[in-house]
Amino acid sequence: MRPAGPGGPPSAPKPPRDTKALALKGGALVAIAVVSALLWWLIRHEPEPTPVADTPSKSGQFQFTLVEGPQVTTDCASKAYGDTKKFFTDTPCTRLSRALYTTETGGKKALVSVVLVTMPGEVTATQLKTLTDKDGTGNVSDLVRDGTFKAQGAPKISGQDAAYDSHVSGAEVAIVLAGFYDKQKDKPVLERIATDALRLSGDLRR
């Protein structure tokens, strides 16, 4: 015990320092600092993500089954009607491929005509699409209309209840018509079927 100072009682001894606890705390602080520095370095040096090419998918919303065709010809005028027939007479195509597909959704079955027309160039292809997009200008005859597909109960797909869509790419024009069997109706769904079927035109290039 330390001697008392002058005029007072002896002072209490200071408690010993817990060096082990201090060492643990210091080690923890160092570890946190190291981890923080490592995370900061990783953030600063993280490589840029590699861009992925936006390629069109061959899959779509509906599943289609080929039931007729493809039929290929170079005489578009003989396979068309209305103003579209006259257009082909004045401006012959270089290739025409036609096919029929079926698809089912929500208990309804649809028959779908897919046509791929190859014109001499982009200008005449655009002119053809502009013409067929209008009402009352005729079209390329589908395989039901020209009597090729004779399956019983096949719906007419070139009337007012049919859905239509088209697409032009370079010198190629894809034209789709779709209609439900058994006089069923659901125009929004039928229009989605027609739009989805445009991708099938790629199979008609073969």
TrEMBL record:
Transmembrane segment boundaries: 21-43
Sorted UniProt keywords: Membrane, Transmembrane, Transmembrane helix
Name assigned to this protein: Uncharacterized protein
